[in-house]
Amino acid sequence: MPDVTLRKIVLLMEEIRHEGGPPPDKPLQRGAVMAVIHNPFAGEYVEDIQHFMEDLKPLGLQMARKLADALGGPHKIEGYGKGAIVGSDGEIEHGALWHVPGGYAMRELLGDAKAIVPSTKKVGGLGARLDVPVTHINASYVRSHFDAVEVGCNDAPRADELALILVMTTGARIHNRMGGLAAKDAKGEDGLR
Fold this sequence. Notes:
- It comes from Roseobacter sinensis.
- Pfam families: AA_synth (PF06684).
- InterPro entries: AA_synth_put (IPR009569), BB2672 (IPR035936).
- This is Amino acid synthesis family protein.
- This protein is 19% helix and 30% strand.
- The chain contains 3 helices and 7 strands; from the N terminus they run ββαβααββββ.
- It has helices at residues 51-70, 92-96, 99-109; strands at residues 6-16, 28-38, 79-86, 119-123, 129-136, 147-152, 161-169.
- By secondary structure, the protein is of the alpha+beta class.
- It has one domain (6-185): CATH 3.30.1330.110.
- The chain starts with 5 loop residues before the first strand and ends in a 24-residue tail after the last strand.
């Protein structure tokens, strides 16, 4: 199995205090953590790559802890998402390997959150940016938490790297007015409602 060779971790934080309407009672915090690692499959086609998901699990949990702690602890988290940017010598399937270790790490850390973790991925060069989708951690139909966080790093991913991303938020969009299922009314049983 390949080792996970970590080049850097990037932590991005955002505190939204105003969106043009009345100031909220408390600011919305959104954050992202990105791990830039060597892509062990870059430059060649490798048939059996699934085993690398197991290698990525400890990194996923480390990243989830780092991000949740930066946002005030796991109990503060209401929204999440994940993504990957694959360097140009890799393929989109290499980014797909992040689905399981990234998603399950956040769900485990947040107390077995019920909603599927939304995800996106792409192949990109240095400085590529990714809009990572966000939904409520226990009920995907909670519209107030539909969001996206743009994530990127000026020197990543290099051609032979993967930029693995987790995103978390502490609440709904400021001034959300879409209606639908409210977070306080979500049952959190099936991951949808």
